[in-house]
Structures are given as structure tokens and as C-alpha cells.
Amino acid sequence: MAQVRALHKIVALLSANSIAAVNNSDTRIAGCFLTGIPGLEHLHIWLSIPFCIMYIATLAGNGILICVILSQAILHEPMYVFLSMLASADVLLSTVTTPKALANFWLGYSHISFDGCLTQMFFIHFLFVTDSAVLLAMAFDRYVAICSPLRYVMILTNEVIGKITAAALSRSFIIMFPSIFLLKCLHYCRINIIAHTFCEHIGIAHLSCSDISINVWYGLAAALLSTGLDIILITVSYIHILQAVFRLPSKDARSKALSTCGSHVCVILLFYIPALFSVFAYRFGGRRIPRYVHILLANLYVVIPPMLNPIIYGVRTKQILEGAKQMFSNLAKGSK
């Protein structure tokens, strides 16, 4: 009995020393631990099933959408080029987050190196800002198509599309790259546990003993100057689009224009509403909303919109539906 008690004391002492070592070590060396969804650890296996299904559906749906657009010459138009860019960004965004979460749910593999955590954080925010920029480009495409249809081909040339793409990627990189340096400048001395399934800017900053005010303000400024500005410009574009649509003399023309914009509006709402709800719930919900609700919202946000976007465009856009049928028909003929 005395030996058992002595063994328990040794184990307790070793555990205390390990915790102290983590506390005193630099997180940049020890790495971080992602807890998953706090409060729902006992449901991780069950939660992994819908997450895995949605991730597979995201890869399949967006992969098919990209192949259809690339293989069908009739879809080599600005609207569909932007759509293929959105599908590519959606696949990457889901891939940056979901496999790591599933590894945590299934295998309990929660450790991630500090540099790996920063890399994941950068690409999550980078791809989010890129998605927002692509939605803005799609809104501009619809604005030109409806408000200046005769000048559409002259305005949205291949050169202009290339410049828009380069501008979207450059803006995302310029906005998000400084956050890496801001995080690397902090002094880390706390337990390196992040109560989340993936690494995000403020979650990493909260591990620091330093003042993180500049990180908070930079994150807010980056969100306002990127996503916030995009929302304003998209809203203004659609105000002008609706004004132009309701001035059309023909009812059929109005219906066709509204149907064309309907898919894009659905995707915009699907993209921004969960994100804004998650942000405001986190900022103002405080302790009234359980922590696991915030984490679930953040995880659903990176898998549900990417999963549904191909379905929305496939169902509502006749050209894509016909292109998919043609592609699969050609594949079936080729296999014979």
C-alpha cells in the first residue's frame, strides 16, 4: 500500500513538473495543442461523421464544378472563371481545416507545431479574404452584364480578369502576412492549449503573456478593410443591378436577369451570414453563448458554404447543368 502511495506521489510530481515545463517553455518550441470542441469531447467521434461527409461532398462537388468549367468551352466566360476561382478557394479552405480536425476527432492527434499553427492560421484568413474578393468580382461581373451589357465583352477581357485575380490574391497576402510577424513578436509563456479545432489569429495571441492590443486592433482593421469593404461594394452593386432590372421593359428579361443573379445572391448570403453571426456571437455573446457553440459555428462555416455552393450553381444555372451532362456523356463514350 505504501508503495502504491509513493508511486502516486511520483506520478503527481512528474505531472506537475511537465505542466510547469510547458508553462515555462517557449510555445514556439513546444508547439500547440488543439482541444477540438471543448465540452463536446465525448461526441467527437459522432461529430466527425457529418464533418467527414461534408468534406468529401465539398471535394467532389467543387472538383466536378471546376472540371465542368474547364472542359466546356461555352463556360469559358468571366462569370464561370470567377466561379471556378471560388470553388478552388473553397476546396483549399476546407482542406486547410477539416483534415486536422478529423485527425483530432478520430486519433486524438491534437499537437501542431508553432510554425504549422501560424501557417494554418495564415491560409485560413488568406483564403477567407480571397473568397470575399472573388464574390466582389462576381458582383462586378453581374453589374456590368446587366447595367452595361453592350460593353460587357470590352470591359471584362482576359487581361482585366487576370488583373482582378492578381489584385484579389495580392490584397489577401498583403492584409494577412503582417499578422505572422505580429504573432512572432509576442512572448509566449502560458500553457500552449488552444480551445479550438484549428489555429486562428486571436486564439494564438491569447497564448501570449504580452499585450495583444495591437493584434486585436490589427485584426479588426484587416476585417473592416477587406470583408467589410467588400460587403459595402457588393451591396452597392446589387442596388444598381436591381434598379436596372426593374427598369427593363420585358417581364421575361426581368425574370431571366433575376434568375441569373439569384445563384450569386444565395452564395453571398451563405458566405457572409454564418461568418458575421459567428463574429458577432463571439464578440458580444460573451458567456451567454457556450464556447462549444462558437467552435461548432466556426467549423460549420468552413464546410457548409463550400459544400452547398456547387449544388446551388448546379441546380440554378442551366449552362452548368448542361455542361455537366455533356462532360459525363463524353466520359461515358470515352470509356466504351
Short description:
The chain is mainly α and 336 residues long. The chain has 13 helices and three strands.
Question: What does this molecule look like?
Answer:
It is a single chain. The chain is mostly helical and 336 residues long. Helix content is 79%, strand content 2%. It contains 13 helices and 3 strands, in the order ααβααβαααβαααααα. A 3-stranded mixed beta sheet has the order 2-1-3. α3 packs antiparallel against α4. The longest helix has 34 residues. The N terminus is likely disordered.
- The fraction of residues assigned to DSSP E strands is under 5%
Tell how many strands the DSSP assignment holds.
3
| Weakly predicted, low-confidence segments | 1-25
| Main beta sheet strand tally, sense and closure | 3 strands, mixed
Count of alpha/pi helices: 13
List keywords for this structure.
single chain, 336 residues
Please write out the topology.
Blueprint: H1 2-24, H2 27-30, E1 32-34, H3 44-71, H4 78-107, E2 111-112, H5 114-147, H6 152-155, H7 158-184, E3 193-194, H8 201-205, H9 213-246, H10 251-284, H11 291-301, H12 304-316, H13 318-335
Parallel strand pairs: 1-3
Antiparallel strand pairs: 1-2
Helix pairs in contact: 3-4, 3-12, 3-13, 4-5, 4-12, 5-7, 5-9, 5-10, 7-9, 9-10, 10-11, 10-12, 12-13
